Amino acid sequence: MPVEEIARRGDDTLRFGPMRPVGLRERPADCFAVVQLRKENHEGTVLGLVGFQTSLAIAEQQRVFGMIPALRNAEYVRYGLIHRNAFLRGPSVLSADLQLGAFSRVWAAGQLCGVDGYMESTSLGLVAALNAAASLRGFPRPVFSVQTMMGLLVDYVTQDREDFQPTNANYGLLPLEPGPKQKAIDRETFAAVALEHIRQIADQVGAWTVQKTSL
User: Fold this and answer.
1) Is the separation of the CB atoms in 152 and 173 below 8 Å?
2) What sections of 99-211 are H helices per DSSP?
3) Smallest Cα–Cα separation from 198: which of 124, 148, 126, 125?
4) How far apart are the C-alpha atoms of 97 and 108, rounded to whole Å?
5) SS3 1
6) What would the pLDDT profile of 113-164 be if each residue is shown by its tens digit?
């Protein structure tokens, strides 16, 4: 999200977001917010602003970021921009095993499926890889139940919905308990059940290594 959009949402959103003053070795008592700089080269002569994606014009970037005391005399070697992710409209083109409907030997993996985040992308990459391996080797397809977060992500990117946008793993995906109150399932209970499902899939996949098959 652009840093200016975060700022637009409230006076304190930045200092509780990318400018949160935590993790400092020596933190002044009056420290209100910080800007994190990350080394971009081995020598440390080029530093990158962390969490500062922006749609601001170049001149406006110079003006706004120059208001930060430590950057008042900074020399910019590359200006900020928005990181854009390409993704498929999964519900329209993906089957439940992340296979492309129009191409029976192609599976979509990771971020391309419509998830956001490193762990989420890795998880759906694993789901796609296991399904591809099962199909090619003639083994039963491993099914990640919606009682696991991986299964909930697969369900999200493959079930039809009106306004499809990428998502990350979040408790809002958890199913609701049946009944009039419709409250979310207890998180610890969900985690325990999910781990048991994952163990079952691990055992199923582990059995592949001891079975003989011909491709």
Assistant:
1) yes
2) 118-137, 149-158, 187-206
3) 148
4) 9
5) coil
6) 999 888 999 999 999 999 999 998 899 999 999 999 999 999 999 988 778 8
> Is residue 80 within 8 Å of 49, Cβ to Cβ?
yes
61 HSE (CA, 13 A, CB side): 18
Half-sphere exposure of 149 (CA within 13 A, CB side): 19
| Cβ-proximal residues to 76 (8 Å cutoff; 6+ apart), any chain | 61, 62
Q: Which stretches of the chain score pLDDT less than 70?
A: 178-182, 210-215
138/213 Cα distance (integer angstroms): 8
**pTM here?**
0.65
Q: Which residues pair with 176 in a beta bridge?
A: 184
- Smallest CA-to-CA distance from 49 within 39, 59, 63 is with 39
Helix, strand or coil, per DSSP, at residue 136: helix
List b or e across 182-194, with b for residues whose CB sees 16 or more CB atoms inside 10 angstroms.
Answer: eeeeeeeebeeeb
> Which domains are delineated in the chain?
1-84 (no CATH), 90-210 (3.50.50.60)
